[in-house]
Amino acid sequence: MNVVSIFTFALKRATAERRMLVLLYVINVIVAAVLALAFRSVLISGFGFTMATSELMQGLNFNTFQEFMLKHGAEVGVIFSQIGWYALLYIIINTLLAGGILATLREKETRFTVREFFAGCVTYFFRFFRLFLLFGILLILLAVIWMVVLGALFSAVTAGGSSEVPYIVWTVVTVILFFVPLMVLLVIADYAKVGTVLSNTHAMVRAAWRSAKFVFRNFLKVMSLQLLMLLVPIALFIIYVWLDLSIGMTTVTTILVMFVIQQIFILTRVWTRVFFFSGELELYSALQPRR
Amino acid sequence: MNSTTNLFRCLLGLIVSVGSIEARQVTFKDPLSPRIANYAISVKLDAEKKMISGKEKLTWRNTSKDAIRELQFHLYLNAFKNTETTFMKESGGRSRDIGMPEGGWGWIDVTSMRTADGENLTPRIEFIHPDDDNEKDQTVFRVPLTKPVLPGRTIEVDIEFRALLPRIFARTGYYQNYFFVSQWFPKIGVYESAGQRYATKGQWNCHQYHATGEFYADYGTYDVDMTVPKDYVVGATGVLQRVQDNSDGTKTVFHRAEDVHDFAWTASASFVDMTEQWRHVKIRVLMQPQRVHQAQRYFQAAKATLEYFDKHVGQYPYPNLTIVDPAYGGFGSGGMEYPTLITAGSFWGLGPELKFAELVTEHEFGHQYWYGMVGNNEFEEAWLDEGINSYYEVRIMNETYGDRTSVADLPGFQIGDLENSRMSYTSMRNPKICPVFTNSWEFKQGGYGNLVYQKAAIFMTTLDRLIGRAVMDTVMKTYFNRWKFKHPCSRDFIDVVNEIVPKYHGDRFGKDLNWFFDQVLYGTDVCDYELTRIRNIEIQKPIGVFDRNGKKVTAASRRDTTGSRLFESSVVASRLGEVKMPTSVLVHFDNGEEVWESWDGQSRWVEFKYRRPEKIVWAKVDPDTVLTIDINWMNNSCTTEPAGAPIWKYTVKFLFWLQNILQLAAMIG
């Protein structure tokens, strides 16, 4: 199978798992809704019976926003400070869910059931959790090394400059140079999970090592597929931004319409996760036959 | 030396001097100002050593009735001499969030000082510290005179000086081949006679260089020639007279400025020189090469501002304006005003959505009026230039670029200049920290910018909305025409307000508006009006036993069988702050009818009662947002039917972005 046929297959495969997608979407909504409702309470108590809220319908009225933040910034700060913890919780939840997703995708002929999905989750959770810790450490190491190296490079290039242009160009270059290895690392982490599910290994360091070897041996194919698949969420995001700018949220109706569009977009983001796993699973199976 | 040679030299000297007089263009046939302090300066820049050396002839006229027995001078560059100067102690080596570069010291020495009679004043130079006890500060000196300068007489002083320019972080200095030279020459203070501003007796007003606040000087003429490397482009206060190429790889640029109170110049090998014309004014922009594409923004902002001031305040009399785009690394020189020359600020890649370049151009140009032509004492009453100028900045920016978009116009995020000013004041942790009317260097606990610029701008906007734009324009035109090329104080401005406003409004605001300035300029209290409560109580039929025509009648039902309903409704508005302003309350009923109520704003609270078939739906205190000085607009309104949609809108937005963040995090899981 070539990269394009794997891409096409993954599109169909991910889309076919509608019940799993709904389940994953519902989990996303539940986790996010808790904090969103707390945010809503702050808004309600903060604005009370003022008419200043009507100023917010046409856009973010700076006066109203600033005065609200002056009075209720502390409460909003508490809500925002929780986002990091929520993200961590969601990472752990997704470490759990990844097992279910991959187990479901592996069994092409079997019909999706919630029970078997969660059975897959439980089967791989502790193995994936170890992978998460391993790659978490690698991620931190990468960030530290890269920041030191790129920081030194950045300072050397921009020191004593006579124009801000090199400064801006090198900022962009530095960010790109950070994201490329980050992406490779995340791809290796994904293939380590895929390899674990396909070979049912319990040795996670070895799984990670094997995954790294797989990625680098098939670098062109792996990254081609990754970049090709990445085009889909980018296209979806562009469509969303276009819709948001075209429709806006200035009336009750448009708020409702945009809410529906936003939730469809979130569903596509959930689908993207399944889509990536599906493609990676297929490529891994094609290039590294199961032992 | 023989007599023929001497004669030849005399003739040559005569030809040269006549030539230079002929070459000198007079800008104003009749002087616009009293021309008290007049300078002729020759300065040479050593671009390698970052030093300047100069010869200065000061011609100073005593316009007071006092015999002047000493002169006082500023040596501003000594503010950068070491860690012990008043400026460095106050600022901690930071100015507008830019830190002093390591080793970037600067200083100035007077190497010689003589009167025209040849009397050597140099040994008598004595540093003084009129504002603090800092004996290490060398930014002001006095020099006693053996022969006093009598009233109406003039003294000529020849001064030689040399200076090391600091690395730019606060207005002046150098960065690589960019030189911005301001506050650079020995400059005489202002002698204030008894009765001038707040002086009770004749005295010098000559303050040290401080971390906050700016300057004060007398008007005069400046004939300045600047010798710089040949490939440098020079921009300076005043009008270019001529350029002379020298044999040593340098050139000398001659400038003359009339009826100004300061002189600044810049030189750089990198400047891209661009010019455009607005009526009689030649606008010159000296751009950094990487930002040439931003130059039009400066031109457009400058033209819009010239147009606005010309229409609403008075004519800009000078024939030119130079806008300097500071070098990267020299941003500390940006956003500063000098007569006929301003420094702005732009950044490569920064689009017109963020209107910093426009805002700073507008603001610094506005200073040509408030500081340049109306020459208040910036050390002592900075609000008269910064506050009034910021008020005009709000007006011009909002009228040119939109009320809600004049500072930032990004998708989903917009800020207008009035909002920006209000935020700066209302977000202060303690807006009562200091009155606006405070010596600039005495804002010891901060708040100089928030109060002197922004609070003043918003109380001026409040005044504008109270008395009306047309009356405000009359006030400002009168103030400008009466005080241009003079040194007014706050009292002089208030006197103009008190003279003009009653002519148009009678006693609507009382016999004068001192009450206004007492609160917002001299006081520290805050203004905060609140719409506290709306109440609608349906008037019901009484029930119980009643005596009617000698009989006991029992009424059991409160329901009115006629079907008509009547409400006893009320609105309570409160004054939470100590500042008292006249205002109004708008009450809206459920049939769409609206009632305007006037309130003098004096009492702690006021209640308006109604007995009508309609219920009150909402009410607003200060419905036209006249009181921009009110620190909280959110509590100015109240409704019985709060709109749920905006709350849902932002809840939905928050939910969506949170869901996205979670999905992004899921990539790691």
How much strand of chain B? Answer: 25-35%
Structural class based on helices, strands and sheet pairing of chain B: alpha+beta
Radius of gyration of chain A: 23 Å
The tally of structural domains of chain B comes to: 4
- Biggest sheet descriptor of chain B: 7 strands, mixed
Task: Assign the CATH class of the largest domain in chain B.
Answer: Mainly Beta
Q: How many domains is the backbone of chain A divided into? A: 1
Estimated share of beta-strand residues of chain A? under 5%
Task: Classify the secondary structure makeup of chain A into a structural class.
Answer: mainly alpha
What's the total helix number of chain A? 8
Low-confidence stretches of chain A: none
How do the strands of the widest beta sheet of chain B line up side by side? Answer: 6-9-2-1-15-18-17
The overall pLDDT average of chain B reads 94
The counted number of beta strands of chain A is 0
How would you portray this structure in words?
The complex is a heterodimer of chains A (291) and B (669). By secondary structure, chain A is an all-alpha fold. Helix content of chain A is 85%, strand content 0%. Chain A has one domain. The radius of gyration of chain A is 23 Å and the shape is globular. Chain B is of the alpha+beta class and 669 residues long. Chain B is built from eleven helices and 35 strands. At the A-B interface, α2, α3, α4, α5 and α8 of A face β26, α6, β35 and α11 of B.
